[in-house]
Amino acid sequence: MKTLILSSSLSPKSRSFLLCQAVNAALSGQSIQIDFVDLRDYDLAPVHRSKTADMERLTEKVKEADNIIIGMGVHCYSINDGLKIVLDTCFGDATNKFFGIVCAAGGEKSYLSTMHLTQICMNEWRMIQLPRVIYATGQDFVNDAIANPDLKERIGIFAKEFYTIGQKLLAE
User: Fold this and answer.
1) Which end of the chain has fewer CB within 10 Å, C or N?
2) Interacting residues of 50 by C-beta distance below 8 A, sequence separation 6+
3) CATH number assigned to the domain comprising residue 85
């Protein structure tokens, strides 16, 4: 099983990146090939410009992946601009893939912001989402580390279910 973990936040102190790292660690013990992408390391260009070499590589990674985990921060109750660029330009071959969402937000009241990403992925590419979403707030972190034991447990459950369901979907 080939899994692409896409950390989409461009913030230097990205908490969604920390969540993606934790999911990566939780999945690493499985028989799974993980490709971890940190968009902070990629040269992105808006839709109206030509794709960069990094975007061409990312398009190929999306195509080769069996499933995708998307890490996002909340920006105005939606996805950030980097993720929007990637969705618009690099996800053409994401049709029917299984995906999961990990999200870091400033507070507890924007938990429905992940639904925008769900709508895009399900409507545009008929992707199948893991029903469990990892949603964390600033209170879950201390000194750039995940501190909430409940969040750590939820990450473990997310990884286990993502692997189990992803394997079943590939078997069909």
Assistant:
1) C
2) none
3) 3.40.50.360
The answer to whether residues 66 and 3 touch, using CB atoms and an 8 Å cutoff, is yes
How many domains does the chain divide into?
Answer: 1
Contact 55, 44 (CB under 8 A): yes
Q: What is the pTM of this model?
A: 0.95
Q: Over the stretch 29-39, which tens digit does the pLDDT of each residue have?
A: 888 999 999 99
Q: Which residues of 16-41 are buried (b: 16+ CB within 10 A; e: fewer)?
A: bbbbbbbbbebbeebebebebbbbee
Q: Which residues of the chain have pLDDT under 50?
A: none
Average pLDDT, the chain: 94
Domain that holds residue 84: 2-171
Phi first, then psi: what are they for 106, rounded to 5°?
A: -70, -30
**Whose CA is closest to 128, among 95, 168, 86?**
95
The SS3 call for residue 64 is helix
Count H helices and E strands in the chain, helices first: 5, 6
